[in-house]
């Protein structure tokens, strides 16, 4: 029950965090937004872990394993997810990315020997199907964001790569969490690794752009590198929204996910934490006044039925 509640809590955090992120992402772009929020969350988690003494639960091997988990789940997963988002649009992207739940269950069975009972398997299938239906049948599919840009095959393939990255990140972290690692310290290692990697990618991109500018007779002037810390368009209000999104969605959400992995089956935890697209439906209704379509509610009902099977197995 601890694992189930933690996974559902993570899904709730991600759903609420997603609403907070809409404005900042539109202003800064997904890459700059992700880099800023990961840096903020990493700093907060490092301070909290140090004050609470969580580092004592991690040895060098566990820290390296968690760093690999962050590299796979956050860096590879997020970069692939954002890339496919620009090609497929949000609706198709979420539907395909929902495959990370059954992929996690399959990897957990193959690599960790975590078998699922028949009712739990049915519950996982219903939750995944319900999430896909809730997103696919949501109103507004004619929006310009939903237009396919470039190759459909490439977009689908990269989105599946994102799902595999998320699943692999959870599987890699599972043994460390089951061994008693502190969830906050573990989240600190994963997020700090991702923040450093995104910053390194940004620096390489800025240096490459600076060399191109200098080759064209223009001065770099340090503006590209300084933009890594203070992206163009970043205001105090946006910074507060990014911090709120990061602390809620990444900080608390990831910590709850790791708590779930420490106490439960990786496939079940991944499935329950993937309910964000369903949980966000009533939130959107309250905020925008636009009622989700009947098909979206039908998908949500299927997902809830799957949750009931999992929780009461």
Automatic annotation (TrEMBL):
Source organism superkingdom: Bacteria
Residues of the EamA domain: 2-135, 154-311
Entries under InterPro entries matching the protein: EamA_dom, EmrE-like
Record's keyword terms, sorted: Membrane, Transmembrane, Transmembrane helix
Bilayer-spanning residue ranges: 6-29, 36-55, 61-82, 94-112, 118-140, 152-172, 184-207, 238-262, 268-287, 294-311
The keyword Ligase is annotated on this UniProt entry: no
Protein's UniProt keywords contain Transmembrane: yes
Name assigned to this protein: DMT family transporter
Source organism: Azospirillum endophyticum
């Amino acid at each position: 029950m601890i694992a189930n509640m933690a996974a559902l809590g993570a899904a709730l955090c991600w759903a609420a965090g997603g609403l907070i992120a809409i404005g900042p992402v539109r202003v800064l772009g997904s890459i700059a937004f992700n880099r800023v929020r990961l840096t903020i969350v990493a700093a907060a988690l490092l301070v909290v872990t140090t004050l609470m003494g969580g580092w004592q639960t991690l040895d060098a091997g566990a820290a390296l394993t968690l760093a690999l988990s962050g590299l796979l789940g956050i860096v590879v997963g997020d970069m692939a997810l954002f890339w496919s988002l620009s090609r497929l649009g949000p609706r198709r992207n979420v539907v395909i990315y929902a495959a990370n739940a059954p992929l996690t269950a399959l990897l957990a069975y193959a690599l960790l020997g975590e078998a699922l009972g028949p009712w739990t398997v049915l519950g996982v299938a219903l939750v995944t199907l319900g999430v896909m239906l809730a997103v696919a049948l949501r109103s507004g599919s004619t929006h310009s964001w939903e237009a396919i840009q470039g190759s459909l095959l490439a977009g689908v393939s990269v989105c599946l790569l994102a799902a595999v990255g998320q699943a692999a990140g959870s599987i890699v972290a599972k043994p460390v969490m089951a061994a008693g690692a502190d969830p906050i310290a573990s989240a600190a290692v994963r997020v700090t690794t991702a923040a450093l990697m995104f910053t390194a990618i940004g620096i390489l991109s800025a240096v490459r752009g600076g060399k191109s500018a200098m080759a064209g007779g223009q001065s770099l002037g340090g503006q590209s590198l300084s933009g890594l810390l203070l992206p163009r368009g970043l205001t105090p209000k946006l910074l507060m929204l990014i911090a709120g999104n990061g602390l809620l969605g990444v900080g608390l959400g990831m910590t709850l996910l790791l708590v779930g992995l420490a106490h439960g089956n990786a496939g079940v935890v991944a499935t329950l934490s993937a309910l964000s697209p369903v949980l966000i439906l009533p939130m959107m209704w309250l905020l925008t006044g636009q009622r989700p379509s009947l098909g979206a509610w039908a998908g949500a009902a299927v997902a809830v039925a799957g949750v009931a099977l999992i929780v009461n197995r």
